[in-house]
Fold each of these.
Amino acid sequence: MNTTAPTVRGPVRHFLLTLQLNFRSRQALVYGYLVPVFFLLAFGSVFRDDTPLLFRQMGQLLAITILGGACFGLPTALVAERERGVWRRYRLLPAPPGRLLLGTLAARLVIIALAAVLQLALARGIYGTPLPLHPWQTAGGFLFVTASFLGLGLLVAALANDVPAVQALGQCLFLPMIMIGGVGVPLEVLPAWAQRVAGFMPGRYAVDVLQRGVSEREGLAGAGFSLLALAVIGAAAAVAGTRLFRWDTNRHVGRSARIGVALALGAWLAVGVAAAWTGHLKPVLPEAALWESITDDEIARISYQDLPGDHEFVTPLAAPFHGHTGDGTLDAFAERLRRWPPGQLDNAGQSVRHLVCVAAIADLTHDPREAGIARVVFDQLQARFDPGDLRRALAWIVAFPDDGRVVSHVPELGIARHPPEVSVRSRSAIYARKYLGRVLGKIRD
């Protein structure tokens, strides 16, 4: 008699049945889909001034989706089934019980992945959020983060005696990571002490991995420590959760539960200590203040060797005006630029970036006055900003072209066409080098 086929078909049917039952459960739909959509809409309201909208917050939103599905959805389903005696009966089946548990985890992975796809699609459809720069790396990071958080969910299911206890234990994980763990509130707006505390929580590393795949040019290249931290925390929780897993509701956790919890929390502590030891707990500055942290050494490392000439097709720059432009249209443009609100922000670095964008837009749209506009921008930069602030702001644009906010449409300045933002950023970096070289005396004007 062939028992292999039933042994294989049983876990597969259990996997499909788990998916089917999930979509029949209102509670599962709320945690898995309604809560992530709520956070998506909330983030869209809070970060409505960012460009492109929600692109820099997708790591947080995906982490919230995973956290809700793994640390609420999974243990709620497992404990509810245990209370109904489902898992006690599973032990009587010919299929190994552990294989059924793996099937449940796999089904939960599919459920969370569908929620993430829904969130990405809604962000794209409602807010025009770009898709991830590295789709495959984002998918790989998503699977890694989900596997780690499923380990935490398995431990919650092992410790909870009933479904209300799942809610309580889940909130002990969810709320700290949302409030001070870098998941719900961006790290850069948290105080320094909260950022250090976040280094002991997996949420910070989950957001880092996911956001790198979504928006960073290097992708996951710099995410080694975050991946290791998630692996350690997830593995410790999974081992403890598996050893403490209860098939019968009449079996209560004993002294071994303390050992399991100590193992899981010890992993969090070890990760935080390692992060502090290796310098990964340095405070994250707000994006608007990054230009202030540019050092003289970073400025000195900027090269001016490969810049296009001032009379070439790309980034032309007129000669100094020596007091007057000789062009009435440029004089009118200079006056509008002097009153232009985006160039008069409280943040000097962001104001400089906006002004340099104007030169880039004129160049990209082939405005007949492009060389003169670039000169007007440079003259106003020198006249309006402290030399030290101007050097750091221009170096920030060169070294970090993807940081900060840019403008790509300035009809109020008499430039009607609208180039792509990515082109404005790259062209701004070239103009910033030309300007910085002149400010430092590296380029003769």
Note: The mean pLDDT is 88.
Amino acid sequence: MGLAKAIPFAAAIFVLAGAASMGLPGFSGFVAELQVLIGGWSSYPKLVVCAGVGIVIGVAYTLRVMQKAFFGGPESAASEVERHGEPIPPITLPEKIGALLLIFASLVVGLFPRLLLDVISKSFDSPLFDRLKNGGWQ
């Protein structure tokens, strides 16, 4: 549709959010995916391989959506607007602030995962995890 020319801020935010969703290094999704894959490898290597394939499929889907919606296609954003008869409304300041805050939070957690991992790791000392520590759920 070529929406990157019509709404460049939305295109840039979508690319950053897509990178976070794909789990690229530097974003919080990378830390989460890496922890799950490493943690599951010794017990369930076949499931970890399936999860890895799922991640690759998710990356391909996200890249395809990005390309089709914002950067590709023979149609321009102008012809798309003419066809539907409604202009694309501008992105408001509160929407921009909200999007930037979410991207910032994803980058902070991705670059400094210890901020959350130190808080989360304390929960593993609870009685709920005793069974996992003593041989798992087998």
Note: The chain has one domain: 3-110.
